[in-house]
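Appendix C. Worked example: CcmD family protein
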Amino acid sequence: MPESGSVELIWLFGPFVLYLAMLVVYYVWEGKREKRLRERYEEAKHGQ
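Step 2, the predicted output written as structure tokens:
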């Protein structure tokens, strides 16, 4: 019986944990991308 309970917990929390992990990856990825864009913008702005 304990293994069926743990399987139910995995099915219950698995998608939520996956969603949180994808959210963290998205924010890290977008943060790096935004930082790169800001550096490029600053270089172009100072180049004028």
